[in-house]
């Protein structure tokens, strides 16, 4: 579901207040050249992630779902020089592209790309004492969204911000009995958040160059 005017408005926002630079442009170009799906966040959404991380004063960020590292670059640029971002990517080929993009952006000293299933990497992070993370961005396979939010809580602290992307699914999120596992997983995630007393959350719809979708935004309570 797309609308040319949505793209026109997104382009205006991006050109006016969230312009691309060489590293971001190259990250998208190299991701496309490597055959990665063109599902990275839009530039103005990347800038939103960066602003949220800065407002949060984040020093330790976890990203679940790296793809080509485009959103990773936006988030890592919000960190101080001694900050840290751990990003988890299932596909080794995607992870290689992301590492190259992150290095070209000059962020490889503070960003670590871990390869493998996130549900294997997350227990390892817990065992290493990697948390608590100040911000968690979840943008991976939607079937496992409930598990990712559960792990985000385990690796959080009071005040941690958790962001989940692609929660509207072109409006299918409102379907009571969906036949799409991605929608089912996302609805299960909403049910989990709704009954979890440690989370204060909202969600909103977006339109733009990425079509019709939305985000869930949650804060871990005291």
Highlighted features:
222 residues; Rossmann fold; 7-stranded mixed β-sheet; 43% helix; globular
Question: Would you kindly provide a brief summary of this structure?
Answer:
This protein has 222 residues and is of the alpha/beta class. The protein has helices spanning 4-17, 22-33, 43-56, 70-76, 92-104, 118-128, 145-154, 181-195, and strands at 60-64, 84-89, 111-115, 135-138, 161-165, 199-208, 211-220.
**Spans of 5+ residues with little confidence (pLDDT < 50)?**
none
Order of strands, main sheet, comes to 3-2-1-4-5-7-6
Give the CATH H-level superfamily: Vaccinia Virus protein VP39
Could you name the CATH class?
Alpha Beta
Q: How many beta-strand segments?
A: 7
**Share of residues in strands:** 15-25%
Major beta sheet summary: 7 strands, mixed
Oligomer: single chain
Which bin fits the share of residues in helices?
Answer: 40-55%
Question: Mean of residue pLDDT?
Answer: 96
Q: What is the number of helical segments per DSSP (H or I, 4+ residues)?
A: 8
Q: Report Rg.
A: 17 Å
**Distance from first to last alpha carbon:** 39 Å
> What name does the CATH topology carry?
Rossmann fold
GO molecular function: O-methyltransferase activity; S-adenosylmethionine-dependent methyltransferase activity
Organism: Streptomyces viridochromogenes
Keywords: Methyltransferase, S-adenosyl-L-methionine, Transferase
Protein name: Methyltransferase
């Amino acid at each position: 579901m797309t609308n040319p005017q949505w793209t026109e408005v997104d382009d205006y926002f991006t050109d006016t207040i969230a312009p691309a630079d060489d590293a971001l442009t190259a990250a998208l170009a190299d991701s496309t050249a490597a055959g990665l799906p063109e599902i990275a966040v839009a530039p103005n959404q990347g800038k939103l992630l960066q602003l949220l991380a800065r407002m949060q004063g984040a020093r330790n960020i976890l990203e679940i779902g790296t793809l080509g590292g485009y959103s990773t670059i936006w988030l890592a640029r919000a960190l101080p020089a001694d900050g840290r971002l751990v990003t988890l990517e299932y596909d080794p080929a995607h992870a290689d592209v992301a590492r190259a993009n992150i290095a070209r952006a000059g962020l490889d000293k503070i960003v670590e790309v871990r390869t493998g299933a996130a549900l294997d990497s997350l227990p390892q992070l817990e065992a290493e004492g990697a948390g608590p993370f100040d911000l968690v961005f979840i943008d991976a396979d939607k079937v496992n969204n409930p598990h990712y939010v559960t792990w985000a809580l385990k690796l959080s602290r009071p005040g941690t911000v958790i962001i989940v992307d692609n929660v509207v699914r072109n409006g299918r999120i409102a379907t009571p009995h969906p036949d799409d596992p991605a929608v089912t997983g996302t609805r299960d995630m909403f049910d989990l958040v709704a009954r979890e007393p440690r989370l204060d959350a909202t969600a909103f719809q977006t339109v733009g160059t990425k079509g019709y979708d939305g985000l869930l935004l949650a804060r871990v309570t005291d």
